[in-house]
């Protein structure tokens, strides 16, 4: 019984250490996930803006004066940007 006392005393410390490590790892993984999500969102916004620019440049070719087409293009772009936010 005397030999098991040091082990019994250190068990709570080990348990606390393990819990602390698990919590730390969970926090690190959570932060990494948030950063990855934010990064993906930024890339998605960049892709949408790039696509929008290409679409605009295609519709604004010299000689094209379709005002309705331009207005519709702007509306589409605003709808997409609202969805991303």
Topology:
Layout: H1 4-59, H2 67-84
Helix pairs in contact: 1-2
Q: Overview of this structure, please?
A:
This protein has one domain. Helices cover 87% and strands 0% of the residues. The chain contains 2 helices and no strands. It is rod-shaped. The model has no long low-confidence stretch (mean pLDDT 71).
Model regions low in confidence, pLDDT < 50 over at least 5 residues: none
Terminal residue distance:
64 Å
Largest sheet: none
Estimate the strand proportion. under 5%
Our count of domains comes out at: 1
Gross geometry? rod-shaped
Percentage of residues in helical conformation? over 70%
Number of DSSP E strands: 0
Helix and strand string, N-terminal first?
HH
What value does the Rg take, in angstroms?
A: 28 Å
In DSSP terms (H or I, runs of 4 or more residues), the helix count works out at: 2
SS-based class: mainly alpha
What is the mean predicted local confidence, pLDDT? 71
Subcellular location: Mitochondrion membrane
Main location: mitochondrion
GO cellular component, one term: proton-transporting ATP synthase complex
Keywords: ATP synthesis, CF(0), Hydrogen ion transport, Ion transport, Membrane, Mitochondrion, Transmembrane, Transmembrane helix, Transport
Name the descriptors:
proton transmembrane transporter activity; single chain; hydrogen ion transport; CF(0); membrane; rod-shaped; ion transport; 85 residues
């Amino acid at each position: 019984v005397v030999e098991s006392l040091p082990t019994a005393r250190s068990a709570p410390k080990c348990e606390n250490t393990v819990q602390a490590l698990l919590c730390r790892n969970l926090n690190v993984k959570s932060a990494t996930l948030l950063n990855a999500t934010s990064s993906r969102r930024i890339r998605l916004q960049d892709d949408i803006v790039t696509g929008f620019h290409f679409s605009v440049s295609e519709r604004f070719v010299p000689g094209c004066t379709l005002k309705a087409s331009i207005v519709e293009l702007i509306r589409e772009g605003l709808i997409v940007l609202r969805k991303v936010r």
